[in-house]
Design goal:
seven-stranded mixed β-sheet, 13 helices, alpha/beta, Enolase-like, domain 1, FAD/NAD(P)-binding domain, binds nicotinamide-adenine-dinucleotide, binds flavin-adenine dinucleotide
């Protein structure tokens, strides 16, 4: 069979790209090695983790916060099996939705491992080793990523695990040791802490979420510590061993002392790496860099002119919404359009509670670049909305150009900031100033008023409500 476009990989990059290319008049095939579509994000990433974060949040609230609202539930309890089943149901519905979208948009789906025969022919090998070869004028590689590991750790998938297994445990760990205080470590660490596990996060850097604004790292660590998560920052893990049900992690701290952590599960969450295994890239000589990323130009074109790559398998943030934008853009390039992605304005969100959301430059970046900036920071606890709900932790920080007042970065910790970040992202796309945001009427009482207040402080240095 001959297609205009063959997409390999059905994650948020690949499936969106397939839909868009088809909507732009191309004949499209999508190749996916697993039987369900949706990639990491829908099967073992964004969606299942959020399902468990929400379930565990409800339980945590019932246990710790309902009483204050005058609601008494005698001995709140949970059925972990049911929680996992609900999460699986959410995955099932969501991935079935992608299959529906493929049919609706006339995208032909091939189940099997896609590998290059040459630059226009893809071999699709099924589980039973049977195969067929399809032809494509253009090929889009959207094969995503897999968990990284440290060279001396053996992931046994039972007690020494990655996020994939952590989303599917049969029991609540007694003591979960988390290596890596990044997004996965903090989100999944939160899930199991709320469900009763002891959780210790061991982080190499001197702060958690090292790439985020330092104010965020400090505030997030403070509130998660209040929730009972223990942190060992500035610790370099040197070995991980298992003895039956016990896992031992050895690490070296900044004073070069050896520190020993013992638990019954160890989650290794030290980042992810691009996934190109099985593609037979060597047959077409597609260039891969030292980090294992497929090299592309600004149009997502590899060194082979009809082969493109997008999402986690190329350079940049490993986020579903970044992969999606690239999926749309590459389809538009193929249709001779001129798309544009603003990589400075990709929101970064952590779904702990309180949530974390960031867009644009961090204060550390502005300091390092010697740019003249001003800042406005407003605490969530000063909002009527926060006091009404009881969610008082966090802040909104607006960073603006000292001379022009243009907003350069926004960093927030607080209830529902995952959704609030889009207000400032839109404002920044239109190059708004902090005065612009401060002068816009915000609904009352809402958490969004913290954005207006922080903008007012960044603009003229004076607070109204704190
Ligand atoms: P992927 O989603 O990885 O999809 C690649 C697909 O290609 C897979 O289905 C794979 O089976 C298939 N494939 C690979 N090789 C072949 C081959 N040779 N032939 C056929 N098929 C192949 N991001 C967010 O933005 N928000 C979140 O909340 C979030 N939460 C996350 C939570 C966890 C626990 C994890 C692990 C990740 C999370 N991410 C989140 C990251 C997000 O999942 C990824 O950035 C996103 O899935 C990348 O999309 P992609 O299309 O590039 O690749
Ligand atoms: P990450 O890069 O967010 O965090 C990894 C952490 O591990 C870093 O803080 C790093 O300093 C630390 N680390 C590295 N080596 C270490 C060592 N030897 N000892 C101790 N600590 C060490 O990666 P992640 O949490 O694994 O997540 C992977 C990717 O998935 C990220 O790129 C993220 O964008 C994506 N993701 C996104 C979301 C979301 O958007 N909410 C959720 C989960 C995952």
């Amino acid at each position: 069979m001959k297609y205009d476009v063959i997409v390999i990989g059905s994650g948020p990059g690949g499936y969106i790209s397939a839909i868009k290319a088809s909507q732009l008049g191309k004949k499209v095939a999508l190749v996916e090695k697993y039987s369900t579509l949706g990639g990491t994000c829908l099967n073992v990433g964004c969606i299942p983790s959020k399902a468990l974060l929400d379930s565990s949040h409800h339980y945590y609230d019932a246990l710790n916060n309902f009483e204050e609202h005058g609601i008494s539930i005698k001995n709140p309890s949970f059925d972990f099996g049911k929680m996992i089943n609900r999460k699986n149901k959410v995955i099932e519905n969501t991935t079935a939705g992608i299959k529906f979208l493929m049919d609706k948009n006339n995208v032909t789906v091939y189940e099997g491992l896609g590998s290059f025969e040459d630059n226009t022919h893809i071999k699709v090998t099924k589980k039973d080793s049977s195969f067929e070869i399809i032809e494509g004028e253009n090929i889009i590689i959207a094969t995503g990523s897999k968990p990284s590991n440290l060279p001396f750790i053996k992931i046994d998938k039972e007690k020494i695990i990655t996020s994939t297994e952590a989303l599917n445990l049969k029991e609540i760990p007694k003591h979960l040791l988390v290596i890596g205080g990044g997004v996965i470590g903090l989100e999944l660490g939160s899930v199991y802490k709320r469900l009763g596990a002891n959780v210790t996060v061991i982080e190499y850097d001197s702060k958690i979420t090292p790439t985020m604004d330092s104010d965020i790292s400090r505030e997030l660590q403070k509130v998660l510590k209040k929730q009972g998560i223990k942190f060992a920052t500035g610790h370099r893990v040197t070995s991980v061993t298992r003895n039956n049900d016990e896992v031992t992690v050895k690490a070296t701290n900044k004073k070069e002392e050896e520190i020993i952590f013992k638990g019954d599960f160890c989650l290794v969450a030290v980042g992810r790496k691009p996934y190109t295994e099985g593609l037979a890239l060597e047959k077409v000589d597609v260039k891969v860099n030292e980090q294992g990323q497929i090299e592309v130009n600004k149009q997502f074109q590899t060194n082979i002119s009809n082969i493109y790559a997008i999402g986690d398998v190329i350079n940049g943030l490993m986020l579903a919404h970044k992969a999606e934008e690239e999926g749309i853009a590459v389809a538009e390039y193929l249709a001779k359009q001129k798309p544009h992605i603003n990589y400075d304005l990709i929101p970064k969100i952590i779904y702990t509670w309180p949530e974390v959301a960031s867009v644009g430059k961090t204060e550390d970046e502005l300091k390092n670049s010697k740019m003249e900036y001003k800042s406005g920071k407003f605490p969530m606890r000063a909002l009527g909305r926060s006091r009404a709900s009881g969610d008082i932790d966090g802040f909104v920080k607006i960073l603006a150009d000292k001379n022009t007042d243009e907003i350069l970065g926004v960093h927030m910790v607080g209830a529902r900031v995952a959704d609030l970040i889009m207000e400032v992202t839109v404002a920044m796309e239109y190059r708004a100033s902090s005065e612009d945001l401060a002068r816009i009427c915000h609904g009352h009482p809402t958490y969004s008023e913290a954005i207006k207040e922080a903008s007012k402080i960044a603009w003229d240095g004076v607070a109204l409500n704190s």
